[in-house]
């Protein structure tokens, strides 16, 4: 392929996947000075990309003007009018397939992100050796490399954020903690969460900021602030940009396999990730914090992993989730914290 000068990249969800894509976008911009990128994502997620003089955004309205087939065809025409050299589908779902097919028919070159679905499914079913597969960021990079762009495998982008004004309790260390995930099977559970917060409360030099999203999570996190004096909740009180700034202020961030894990990693936090039903081997670990993944081995619990994304196969897996939660005790996490915050 001749050197493209203007590419359009499409990825509108999920938040964690978009946060990972940020690394690849800045990598290719950094190493290809003649390239311009137009990013198609949800407007509220644009803040994850920071600013770059050759990075632009184009909104898609999936709830109104672009929600059905005629709307998607209309959107494809909008893209075509921008005269891109290449459209890269980093999502590969029905909506993006319709858009890219329309573009291809109209003479726009397209490329597609390989999610590695088959490889991961075979690993889950025990049909393939259970080992580390390429990280999603490496897969994003691979698509861009196949276009002929130069990328640096060692590149790491840290999202610049403004200094936050979140009130401090004047404790010596601040820990961010996001106990929820998109699937309950990926969560450490309320019992562990409370035991962990109780242990933290005994260490007078630590304070905890709770992160989460949605009314139900906000309610649950608020309840925890009434039980533990060392705890405050930021959920539902700030914009995404402000939450990223507060994350950056943390000396350490603890998360499940979730979007908060990737966002904390993106702003340069030290991140401890706790893995229950899923596993880092599927390529979704915190990019700069792989070594801080708390996960059982198959020697510890032969049934893992239970899922690629968190969806369980059967009711029996619920008991396995509880088994894994019991094996990853608060003491294990406290020990990891002590090693990082020395």
Task: Explain the overall architecture.
- By secondary structure, the protein is of the alpha/beta class.
- The protein folds into two domains: about 140 residues, Glycogen Phosphorylase B (Rossmann fold); about 170 residues, Glycogen Phosphorylase B (Rossmann fold, 3-Layer(aba) Sandwich).
- The longest helix is centred in the first third of the chain and has 17 residues.
- The radius of gyration is 21 Å and the shape is globular.
The CATH H-level superfamily of the largest domain is: Glycogen Phosphorylase B
Instruction: Tell me the strand order in the biggest sheet.
Output: 8-7-6-9-10-11
List low-pLDDT spans: none
Number of strands: 11
**Derived structural class:** alpha/beta
Q: What fold name goes in the CATH topology slot of the largest domain?
A: Rossmann fold
Sheet bearing the most strands, described? 6 strands, parallel
Percent range for β-strand residues: 5-15%
Q: Number of helix segments? A: 11
**Mean pLDDT reading:** 96
Reading off the top of the CATH hierarchy, the class of the largest domain is best stated as Alpha Beta
Q: How do the helices and strands line up, and which of them pair or pack?
A:
Layout (H helix, E strand, L loop, with lengths): L5 E5 L4 H17 L4 E5 L14 E3 L11 H13 L4 E4 L4 H12 L4 E3 L4 H8 L11 H11 L26 E6 L11 H12 L4 E5 L4 H13 L3 E3 L6 H9 L3 E5 L2 H8 L4 E4 L18 E2 L21 H12 L2 H11 L2
Parallel strand pairs: 1-2, 1-4, 2-3, 4-5, 6-7, 6-9, 7-8, 9-10, 10-11
Helix pairs in contact: 1-5, 1-9, 2-3, 6-11
């Amino acid at each position: 392929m001749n050197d493209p000068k203007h590419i359009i990249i499409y990825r509108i969800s999920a938040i964690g996947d978009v946060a990972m894509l940020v690394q690849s976008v800045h990598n290719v911009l950094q190493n290809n000075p003649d390239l311009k990128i137009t990013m198609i994502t949800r407007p509220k997620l644009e803040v994850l990309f920071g600013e770059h003089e050759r990075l632009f955004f184009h909104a898609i309205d999936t709830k109104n003007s672009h929600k059905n087939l005629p709307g998607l065809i209309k959107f494809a025409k909008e893209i075509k009018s921008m005269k891109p050299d290449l459209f890269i589908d980093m999502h590969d779902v029905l909506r993006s397939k319709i858009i890219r097919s329309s573009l291809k028919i109209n003479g726009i070159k397209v490329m597609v992100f390989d999610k590695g679905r088959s490889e991961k499914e075979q690993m889950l079913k025990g049909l393939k050796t259970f080992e580390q597969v390429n990280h999603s960021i490496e897969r994003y990079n691979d698509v861009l490399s196949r276009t002929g762009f130069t990328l640096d495998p060692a590149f790491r982008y840290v999202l610049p954020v403004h200094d936050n004004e979140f009130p401090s309790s004047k404790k010596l260390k601040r820990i961010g903690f996001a106990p929820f995930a998109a699937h309950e099977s990926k969560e450490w559970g309320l019992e562990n969460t409370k035991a962990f917060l109780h242990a933290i409360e005994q260490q007078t030099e630590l304070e905890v900021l709770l992160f989460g999203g949605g009314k139900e999570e906000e309610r649950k996190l608020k309840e925890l602030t009434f039980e533990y004096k060392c705890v405050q909740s930021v959920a539902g009180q700030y914009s995404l940009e402000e939450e990223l700034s507060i994350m950056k202020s943390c000396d350490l961030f603890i998360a499940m396999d979730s979007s908060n894990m990737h966002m904390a990693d993106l702003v340069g936090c030290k991140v401890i990730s706790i893995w229950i039903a899923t596993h880092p081997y599927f390529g979704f670990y915190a990019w700069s914090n792989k070594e801080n993944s708390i996960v059982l081995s198959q020697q510890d619990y032969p049934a893992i992993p239970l899922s690629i994304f968190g969806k369980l196969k059967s009711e029996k897996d619920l008991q396995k989730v509880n088994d894994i939660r019991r094996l990853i005790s608060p003491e294990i996490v406290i020990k990891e914290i002590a090693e990082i915050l020395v």
